[in-house]
Amino acid sequence: MPIKGVTLKGGSAMLPKIGITSHVNYSLEALTLGKYYIRAVEKSGGVPFVMPCVRDGDIIARYCNVLDGLLFTGGDDISPDYFGEEPKGTRKITPERDAFEILLARKYLLTGKPILGICRGLQLLNIAAGGSIYQDIDTEIEDVVKHMQEAPGWYASHSVVISKGTLLEQVYLDNEIRVNSFHHQAIRDLAPAFHVSARALDGVVEAVESPGHRFLIGVQWHPEKMIFNSISLRLFEIFVEAAGLGN
Length: 247
Fold this sequence. Notes:
This protein is an alpha/beta fold.
């Protein structure tokens, strides 16, 4: 899927509106969001809109109409109810967020507008589109590398191999990169509309994309924590630019 017409920043008369999903913190009774998601969109020429978790289907439909692009962020585990399993390795979940984001993802996927999923966001998209995830890769996959690093967030802790001919290859301009890693769940059964665009050396799915969309990429790592690196920032730039092409 070639990236045609992308000139990075300023390709549209109107700055693209990018929705960013937020986390539900039940102990604080608050919605929270890591600041680097906002900074990444802002630095890439988009207008960030932090999205609360709502239950009204009409409001979700309005989100889908108004937003030019949608960023699904990282966070807690997704309830196994959404892929037909009893809880085994699943840890902390946020039911309110799960319900909102599954519905939002299913409706937004139908629009064909650009989507970027990060960590939980990748898993959420796969589940919403009909796939499933491992509840705990450390107990379900043999010889798995360490995917929950204890190093600082900006540190790239393990290697990822990017498939040739993918959109992700055009973004990163390489077929092997090093990424940060903060997850214990990962894609098991791939959603029918997606294909794998990157894996870790242990075989764990690290990125997917959809040939049926102008831009749809999900990555298992956290590029927003590495935007000091021009290549990591490039992922957000191309996402925002693709969102602007629809204006």
